[in-house]
Amino acid sequence: MSEKIPKSLVYALFFLFGLTLPMGVLLARTESSNYIIFADVISSGGAATSTSDSYSLADTIGEAMILSATSTSASYGIKAGFQELYPDQFLSFSISNTAISLGTLSRTQTKTNSHTMTLATNATNGFLVTVSGSTLSSGGNTISAIGSSAAAASIGNEQFGINLVANSTPSIGANPSGTAPIGSAAAQYNTANFFAFNSGATVASSAGNINQTIFTVSYIANIASGTEAGTYATTLTYSATANF
């Protein structure tokens, strides 16, 4: 009885990424080399509703219709202010490499590789990044994904997984970095030496606005003695959504 040994298992990943901005108020700004007017407004009010012997006060209705209320109770929120304006809303997102390779996979060594994602936003309710796609496949053959419950690398067993922190076993990756406030890796992807992969899962997020944050996405792949020979590949899509 002979043991089937894979002759060549080649690993490749191809990446897509997208940005999602919720529909909302569009700000039209006017600028020159020296000045910026962030937006024009159409306000209401303006009658001299408060007077004394020496003064009169002309009011306008507080304009803010977006973001959180500055004065709140359990049932109400008030956005008061004279033609209140906000800076331009933005979300920036980029990926360092759109394809990575692990070469020939091995039954005696965990193969690894990584790339970075860079993200920044002034969204007051933060952002999230999700990953979608399938595990490694070659024709009808697949390498088992670790799933939603994170696990350590296990040499000799089929595995495909990712995380977004620094690891020592195997030695790969880095913790999210930048000048505070920064984003963080999501649960199941934020523990050193533990990896997961579940299509549609959130892999990074924040609760508020962040400065530029660099996330390192690390990949691991292991095969078993019965893993079929072939060229294994997958395409993953990373999508960033700002919550303004």
Written description of the protein model:
- This protein has about 240 residues and is mainly beta.
- It has two domains: about 10-20 and about 90-240, Sandwich (Immunoglobulin-like); about 30-80, no CATH class.
- Residues about 1-10 and about 20-25 have low confidence and may be disordered.
- The protein has strands at about 10-20, 30, 35, 45-50, 55-60, 70, 75-80, 90-95, 100-105, 110-120, 125-135, 135-140, 140, 145-150, 160-165, 165-170, 170, 185, 195, 200-205, 210-220, 230-240.
Provide the helix percentage. Answer: under 10%
| Major sheet details | 6 strands, mixed
Number of continuous helical runs: 0
What is the CATH architecture annotation of the largest domain? Sandwich
What's the CATH topology name of the largest domain?
A: Immunoglobulin-like
- How many DSSP-defined strands? 22
What is the CATH top level name of the largest domain?
Answer: Mainly Beta
Task: Based on the model shown, name its key terms.
about 240 residues; mainly beta; 6-stranded mixed sheet; 4-stranded antiparallel sheet; elongated
Write the SSE topology:
Blueprint: E1 9-20, E2 30-31, E3 36-37, E4 45-51, E5 56-60, E6 71-72, E7 77-78, E8 91-95, E9 99-104, E10 111-121, E11 127-133, E12 137-138, E13 141-142, E14 147-151, E15 159-163, E16 167-168, E17 171-172, E18 184-185, E19 195-197, E20 201-206, E21 210-222, E22 230-242
Parallel strand pairs: 1-22
Antiparallel strand pairs: 1-9, 2-3, 4-5, 6-7, 8-10, 10-21, 11-20, 11-22, 12-13, 14-19, 15-21, 16-17, 18-20
